[in-house]
Specification:
The chain is of the alpha+beta class. Helices cover 37% and strands 24% of the residues. The strands form three sheets. The protein has an eight-stranded mixed sheet. The longest helix has 22 residues, at 61-82.
Length: 353
């Protein structure tokens, strides 16, 4: 626990004053941030956001419409502009997949795992008879349970690498898009949707040779910056690095990541002097192609890139910037919530263009 508290401080970069971080800005929206500091209270009063536990929130109504309106646009972009295949994956991800991907050594601090009871009658007997008397139900569960070989996914792109493992691309480049629940055991944030334990991620994952993957990321960056501008949002695109568990190897990698611009973040202001990343655009070289045995159309090891958006965080930034009263919103934002009526349950549904 002591360690996890230290890690929260070391690793969570937004506890550092933002001026201390050297950032290279690639793009800046022409819109100025307006800002509504009391937005969480307004969302809670309107009963469209409710706290369900640490880092866990229920969202609905207009908040859900903004979240899934954003998702619909991102999904449309992936399918129509990048010919992406759209998949729904199971929530659980194989532990072996996360190990192969290197997630476990790079980010142990975030990982949440799935367990179940030892499968024998004695366990069930001992467990059920102890439930009422157990002072610490968590400990009681732990004593009777074991890991099942699956984890809660920290991002949704890992499903895609596993799905395509051992395959060869039949085209110069391909894209896959998916949306799912993601889980990270993060520093505690109360009364804010900036940093959650469970959130919803839309990702677009690109596979191809080096040049086409880099080009796809460039096109995706440009399309998303256009969308941010269209919606009247203030924001900027920056060179970033991942919040790795710090050890010597990784410390070097952070430098490599920044110098080679492997990660860009779309940062949206949420209050004066403070922004959050609503999305990231990452290139991985041939790391995942190699680990998962994916080859490009010429038989070389495929390169990959992934672009991920935290939908709760993205929607929260929209409300922080434009307030909770849709009457005062820019037209494009009004259109985002009025053009479909499914609210939080809405599944995107688009044809390939
Ligand atoms: P941050 O630097 O803010 O921790 P990250 O680099 O960990 O973000 P990525 O791994 O790039 O984030 O994930 C893609 C996107 O998922 C982020 O840009 C953000 O919008 C969203 N996201 C990441 N962590 C959280 C979280 N704990 N709660 C809500 N959204 C999140
Ligand atoms: Zn990803
Ligand atoms: Mg993070």
């Amino acid at each position: 626990d002591e360690l996890s508290r230290k890690l929260d401080v070391i690793i969570t970069k937004d506890v550092l004053p933002q001026e201390q971080l050297e950032t290279e800005i690639i793009w800046k929206s022409p819109h100025a941030a307006q800002g509504d500091d009391g937005v969480f209270a307004k969302l809670a009063d309107a009963d469209i956001v409710a706290e369900m536990g640490e880092g866990l929130y229920a969202v609905g109504g207009l908040f859900g419409k903004v979240m899934f309106g954003l998702d619909r646009r991102l999904h449309e972009l992936a399918v129509q502009e990048f010919d992406a295949d759209s998949f729904h994956y199971p929530t659980l991800i194989s532990t072996e997949t996360l190990r192969r991907a290197g997630y476990m050594s790079a980010f142990p601090q975030f990982l949440m795992t799935a367990s179940r009871f030892h499968s024998d009658v004695d366990t069930y007997d001992s467990f059920t008879s102890g439930i009422a008397a157990s002072e610490d139900i968590g400990k009681h569960i732990e004593e009777h349970s074991e890991h099942i070989g699956y984890c809660l996914p920290p991002a949704v792109c890992y499903h895609v690498y596993e799905h395509l493992s051992g395959s060869s691309l039949d085209k110069k480049s391909i894209a896959v898009t998916t949306r799912g629940k993601t889980f990270r055991f993060e520093a505690r944030y109360r009364r804010s949707l900036e940093r959650l334990w469970e959130f919803t991620m839309r990702e677009v994952v690109f596979f191809g040779d080096r040049n086409s993957v880099v080009e796809q990321r460039r096109r995706m960056v440009s399309a998303v910056c256009d969308l941010v501008e269209e919606l009247g949002l203030a924001g900027r695109l920056e060179v970033a690095n991942d919040p790795f568990f710090l050890n010597e190897q990784v410390a070097d990698y952070v430098q490599v990541q920044r110098v080679m611009e492997l990660k860009y973040e779309l940062c949206l202001p949420v209050k004066a002097g403070r922004s959050v990343a609503a999305g990231s655009f990452n290139v991985h070289g041939d790391r995942f192609g190699s680990v998962f045995g994916i080859s490009d159309a010429d038989g070389g090891t495929a390169h990959t890139a992934c672009v991920g958006f935290g939908l709760e965080r993205f929607a929260y930034a929209v409300f922080c910037q434009h307030g909770a009263d849709p009457g005062a919103w820019p037209d494009a934002l009004k259109a985002l919530v009025s053009s479909h009526g499914n609210g939080a349950a809405g599944e995107p549904d688009v044809e390939k263009g």
